[in-house]
Design a protein that fits this description.
about 220 residues; globular; six-stranded parallel β-sheet; single chain; 10 helices; alpha/beta
Length: about 220
């Protein structure tokens, strides 16, 4: 029986993936249209990866320049300025708010996000969601490490835990600890999960039925 549910945030609880896609493109638009296009395409293909790692990759692979500390901090600051208020205002994924409200007494909820720790805590707080979660994990803590920490803290058996995500990194984090995984599907990530053997939902309103299927399989 599922006792613990770990949620990614962007694209799983909030419809905020496009906000960050636009922000990445805007940050690199002065490097030319081709670089901006590559940046956006890479982000879309690696939505669950920390912006810290993405910035380093962009400079190394697309710009062929060293990313010094001052530039790195400036990118992080400008990115936050572009996205935080917009993510706070973003609509919930269909059924997400209702699921949290209706099932808070039944499950222990966690967030495991690639968003920086202070930023994801601020976003969750400003949206009035903190009360739902036992703990919130953000970068630099990786999702693999977050899942392992949750299993130890609860404590909970792997078969009693579920990760709901929208990226291959989410699925990999679940697999690393042998917990259940459900993919939230939307137009931008359908190809990622098309051939992968995992449960898929298009809205969190479908999650209860997906959990029933997983528990029946156990």
């Amino acid at each position: 029986m599922i006792r613990t549910i770990i949620f990614d945030f962007d694209g799983v609880l909030a419809e905020s993936v496009d906000i960050k896609t636009v922000a990445f493109g805007k940050l690199f638009e002065n490097e030319g249209a081709e670089v901006a296009r590559k940046v956006v395409e890479y982000h879309i293909a690696h939505t669950g990866v920390s912006r810290y790692d993405k910035f380093r990759y962009f400079y190394r692979e697309f710009l062929g320049r060293e990313l010094d500390d001052d530039t790195f901090r400036g990118l992080c600051r400008r990115f936050s300025e572009l996205v935080v208020d917009e993510v706070v205002k973003a609509p919930y994924v269909e059924g997400a708010k209702e699921f949290l409200e209706e099932h808070a007494a039944r499950y222990r909820f966690y967030v495991a996000s690639a968003t920086p720790q202070e930023e994801i805590e601020e976003i969750v707080a400003r949206r009035g969601m903190t009360k739902f979660f036992s703990r919130i994990y953000g970068a630099p803590t990786g999702k693999d490490a977050a899942v392992k920490d949750i299993l130890e803290r609860d404590p909970v058996l792997p078969e009693e835990a579920l990760f709901v995500g929208d990226a291959s990194s989410d699925m990999n984090a679940a697999a690393a600890s042998d917990i259940h995984f459900v993919a939230r599907i939307y137009e931008g990530n359908e190809d990622i999960f098309r051939s992968l053997g995992c449960a898929r939902i298009r809205a969190i309103s479908e999650l209860k039925d997906a959990i029933s299927v997983l528990e029946g399989q156990g």
